[in-house]
Amino acid sequence: MLSTREIPSETELRAAARDLDAATADAALLSLRVLQLAEDLTRAYDVHVRGHYGVSSGRLSLLLLLARGGATRPADLAERAGLARATVTRLLDGLARDGLVVRRRDGDDGRARRVELTAAGRRLLQRIAPSHARRLAGLTRHIGPDGRRQLSDLIERLRAGLGALRGA
């Protein structure tokens, strides 16, 4: 992943791309700051989840998806999680080893499997849900309700601009 630790200054950005106008340079710098924030949030979230709950953020994501959707085929879980199938398989292997999920046959096809939470997986989620929600809420508590609404709106607007990065 491209590291955004060192965001270029406006002067450096303009020197690298001499034909940039001020508005484009400002927009590019803001986008880099958003990417840096995303990196920082991801890193902090990973440390928080592993440190407080003893599971990786990837594993926790799969547990939460299974809690919402019930027994699911691994390929469907990969699609819902936005992860590669191989990554989901590796995460599920660890969750199964820890007794948090179980793989069961799916219907008549002996090869097809569905994954579901075990009682231990459900207990883990019930145990961590309140403190996890409080910690997540703490991230934006200092900006107040109006600020959170504005931020939510801005995030949706940024999401709408993702096509520009994808080349759409």
Report on the structure:
- It is a single chain.
- The protein is mainly alpha-helical and 168 residues long.
- It has helices at 10-16, 22-53, 57-69, 74-81, 85-97, 119-140, 144-160, 162-166; strands at 101-106, 109-117.
- It has two domains: 10-54; 55-159, Winged helix-like DNA-binding domain superfamily/Winged helix DNA-binding domain (Arc Repressor Mutant, subunit A), CATH 1.10.10.
- It has a two-stranded antiparallel sheet with strand order 1-2.
- It is elongated and about 60 Å long.
- The mean pLDDT is 88.
Provide the number of structural domains: 2
The named CATH superfamily of the largest domain? Winged helix-like DNA-binding domain superfamily/Winged helix DNA-binding domain
Mean pLDDT: 88
- Provide the CATH top-level class of the largest domain: Mainly Alpha
Strand content: 5-15%
Reported CATH architecture of the largest domain = Orthogonal Bundle
Helical percentage: 55-70%
Describe the global form.
Answer: elongated
What class do helices, strands and sheet pairing give? mainly alpha
CATH topology of the largest domain: Arc Repressor Mutant, subunit A
| Oligomeric state, counting identical vs distinct chains | single chain
Strand order of the largest sheet: 1-2
C-alpha-based Rg, rounded: 20 Å
Please outline the major beta sheet: 2 strands, antiparallel
- Strands, total number: 2
SSE order and pairing:
Layout: H1 10-16, H2 22-53, H3 57-69, H4 74-81, H5 85-97, E1 101-106, E2 109-117, H6 119-140, H7 144-160, H8 162-166
Antiparallel strand pairs: 1-2
